Amino acid sequence: AFDKTVAKDNSLAVGFFQRGFVHLQLEMYEEALSDYHLAFTHLRKNPFIDYKQLGLRYVLNAWEVLYSTAAAQCRLGQWQEAKATLEKAVVWRPGGRTAVLDLALEQVQKHLFLEPMQVPPGEFFRPRKKEVEELDSKDFLGKPKVISSIIPNDEYIGFEPLRPQKQGFYEPSADALQ
After folding, report:
1. Around 54, how many Cα atoms within 13 Å sit in the side-chain half-sphere?
2. Number of domains making up the chain
């Protein structure tokens, strides 16, 4: 499902973030690391992306993506890279609250695996009701109408400019005009 999602929107950072988490759970560490790198790239140097506008009650933070990247690097035995990634995450953490990252740095120095961050279970994209109501089909053309000709003996079916022209054929009778 995440493959289909990121195929439809290849800039969806949270899609890559969630797919990275799934890859970690499936022990596909290289793919997870790649997805986390893509998620961070698609943040476009923003500290976070708020997905509430799209119907997902979740804010994806850059430091969370970097933390999960470090978790994937730990699984691959890339301890120095994981340490560097966590130090980079400290810079992206807002407000200087780095207790979680400091603890993670200690774990990496002791060569202990980190548990990756994830979107809280049970959170799904739910578009607003107003947007879903507009998805109903609308009839812009209206109902078809049958229009009859006032010209006697007119058996032509088609558009008026394509009608073969005959001299004297188009004068309506006096009865038709009334």
Report:
1. 15
2. 1
